[in-house]
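Chapter summary example.
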Amino acid sequence: MEGFLRKLSQYILKLKAADYSTICKRIKKMDIKLPEEKLGNDMVVALDSTGMKVSNRGEWMREKWKRRRGWIKVHIVVDAKSKKLLAMEITDERTGDGKMLKPLIEKVERNVGKGKIKQVTADGAYDSKENFEYLNNKGIEPAIKTRKNSSTKARGSPSRAKHVREMKELGYEGWRDKYRYGQRWIAESFFSGMKRTFGETTRAKSIEGMFQEVEMKFSFYNALISL
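The structure predicted for these 227 residues follows.
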């Protein structure tokens, strides 16, 4: 970007090319927001997370020097119909997926205005009593895969117990077809497309810079597929 601006300044005399440090400082201060979406009252959304490497030096360097660079986790919500990104949260690798369901759904509700979520589709990482009760209180149908050894007793979550019993009655395949659980792969497809386009590593050095870089990549990819 610095080189591009310098070359452009040769043709636009009043344009002052910013140096590398200035560009980096400005990028960190950018307020990146997903565009508001006008969707209907029967939205089916898919939740998932993925890891982004914080260094592109390769696994060989990690093994040789015994330096664990870690990961950044990106949690997203994608609309099953439009395949657009509706909400995103970025955390460190220690944050569990299940804990991010509530803040993600709240972000979606703010971003879609009058739209209403009908169903949330997610894998077993989001299986918890708190998440089932949260969705039930909001009138949202949970299509969350429960653990095989889950109890059919409520134990603080009647909603989860109901879905556990239903899965046992229908069997996994029957339950999968009823809730169209395969739609969960829409989020996986979004991750795959973003990483093919922008890569799965971050070049920034500071934590703040890493989070901003990852957020920009996901936002730009969302803009590309929305064209």
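To summarize the output: The chain has a mean pLDDT of 87.
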